[in-house]
Write a structure and sequence with these properties.
By secondary structure, the protein is mainly alpha-helical. It has one domain. It contains five helices and two strands; from the N terminus they run ββααααα. A two-stranded antiparallel sheet has the order 1-2. β1 and β2 form a beta hairpin. α1 runs antiparallel to α4 and α3 runs antiparallel to α4. The longest helix is centred in the first third of the chain and has 26 residues. The chain starts with 9 loop residues before the first strand and ends with a helix.
């Protein structure tokens, strides 16, 4: 191994040497924070008042297994919101399980948006913009995790 390749903060083969996170790993962290904050805020809003909530009419649930937004809110809060915070801990601590679970968190957000679209259709008002934005966040979480510098940083 040459001195240049062993310089901290540079990749050596597929493993990242040094303490500084590559930009792709920092982007992954920021995206997980965005995912968690949005889902926690939305989930709390739905759980606190499952009928007169954050602007989602209960009539959207006609034809779904839900009579109000309590269970969708719990799922949003726990699976799409709190789970990424645990993932964030693993990513910040540079744990391999954090990398794997980051992929799961991003994929989970994409699945959430797809199922929401199937069950509810496009949400009224600014809702469709939020659906698109969060689908992109989920996609970018997966992409950021799969980028070579991020994989090298986690030793994958």
């Amino acid at each position: 191994m040459t001195d240049e390749a062993a310089e901290p903060g540079r990749p050596v083969g597929l493993v990242w040497v040094g303490r500084r996170r590559p930009r792709s790993a920092r982007a992954l962290i920021a995206l997980l924070v965005l995912q968690a904050l949005g889902a926690i805020g939305g989930g709390i809003g739905l759980v606190q008042d499952p009928v007169n909530n954050i602007g989602m009419p209960v009539s959207l649930l006609d034809g779904t297994p839900f009579s109000d937004y309590l269970w969708p809110g719990v799922i949003l809060l726990v699976v799409v919101g709190i789970f990424p915070l645990g993932v964030l801990y693993g990513v910040l601590r540079r744990r391999l399980w954090g990398w794997w679970l980051a992929l799961a968190a991003g994929a989970g957000l994409i699945i959430w948006i797809i199922v929401e679209g199937i069950l509810l259709g496009y949400l009224p008002g600014a809702g469709i913009g939020l659906q698109i934005a969060y689908a992109l966040i989920g996609l970018f979480v997966v992409i950021a995790a799969l980028l070579r510098p991020t994989r090298g940083y986690f030793g994958v």
